[in-house]
């Protein structure tokens, strides 16, 4: 995967990208990530996140809409490593992560809205592969997401 700069993508494809207007905390050694979108909608429960990250990622980005809750963590170092090893390109969490220092040492990229040391529940409640909306942006399975330190962009199709 080549490094990308979202600012350059906006310059080159302004009419083809949407901006997710949210503030992110960035974790991992990768400078950027991009790929087709796969989505989950969960709330303070990460069993479906683990199940999904255990499947072949095929270069996709997992977008987890946790309702913005930072009360419990939806992704930590163990789940991120499962995702990396399964071929996921990165994770965006509209919610909290834990094990931030361990995540920073990984060759992977995770964005979250915050951090929490508290574990989530594990009931597998949630929905998969549906449109999720946060940061005034729609994340639609099969569309593409591009992420770096400047933010998150979404495109209907691969830009390159």
UniProtKB/TrEMBL annotation:
Catalytic function, reaction form: 4-hydroxy-4-methyl-2-oxoglutarate = 2 pyruvate; oxaloacetate + H(+) = pyruvate + CO2
Provenance organism: Georhizobium profundi
Record text on subunit structure and interactions: Homotrimer.
One biological process term in Gene Ontology: regulation of RNA metabolic process
NCBIfam families per record: NOT-MenG, PRK09372.1
Pfam families: RraA-like (PF03737)
CC cofactor: a divalent metal cation; Mg(2+)
Positions that bind Mg(2+): 99
Protein name: 4-hydroxy-4-methyl-2-oxoglutarate aldolase
Similarity comment: Belongs to the class II aldolase/RraA-like family.
One GO MF term attached to the UniProt entry: 4-hydroxy-4-methyl-2-oxoglutarate aldolase activity
Keyword flag Metal-binding: yes
